[in-house]
User: Fold this.
Amino acid sequence: MKTYISLTTVTFLLLTVTLILPIQSAHCQIREKIKGSKKISLSQKTVDEFDAIEIDDNLEVFLIKGNESTLEIEADDNLLPIIECTVVNKKLTIHTTKEITGYKKLIVRVTYTDILKLIIAKHDANITAIADLNLDNLSVQGFDYARLHINVRCKNFNLLANDKSKTELNLKADKAIMNLSKNAEVTALVAALDLKLDIYQKANASIEGDVTDFRLRLDNFTQFTGKNFSCKNAEIITEANTFCSILVQQKATLELSGKSEIELFGEPKIELKRFADQAILRKKPLVAK
Assistant:
């Protein structure tokens, strides 16, 4: 007697296996926990040359410029062995091999050189650069609750902020591009010739400073606060439920739709390319300080 398995049964089995595997994989990724000894120790070492840095796992990192690439880790002594640092294809990656639940001190100081081009912060990492990151070109990326506190002076700057990351930025650049999404927050003081800023998915930016040419796009419950941000020329697109407050000196080219709102300060020439749905354009006077 032959036994037949229906196509429905096969499909069910395949779906079951497909669902179980990710669950098993997720359990495999649960890491051992460790608590600091509260006995502070210092580790110093030279690393291979790198042009990119990726920081992970709730580490606090300070960036310092120097003539050679080095690391200094100041932490509870039993945590030093679980802080892993590798350089592969000129990218320095720093992360922990165990989940740290408590410590007295955990600080990583990274000395970088002129060839640095990329900084990535992930998973609650905290990166600080008090002195200027004085470079030709620099890209910075923040993901998953990462925090960045950086001063940058460069020709070309690129920021990607995502996943509830928070960035505090002091920037001087010829050209800057910033892309914010997924509840990211950026607070910045900017001096640039050209700035392009895209804000999506409940992200927010509060920017002060002076820019010659500014391009801004807002969509999906986002906000740009720039009352103390001055630009000569602005191209602004606002869609869905968004809010923008900005000072423009010479010319403002505007496209408004959805339930978006723009508060416009200054006395610029206004070119209204689109004004649709329930959008609001509100002209605001400058208040003398």
Notes: Confidence is low (pLDDT under 50) at residues 1-5, 10-28. Residues 7-28 form the longest helix (22 residues). Helices lie at 7-28. The first strand starts at residue 33 and ends at 35.
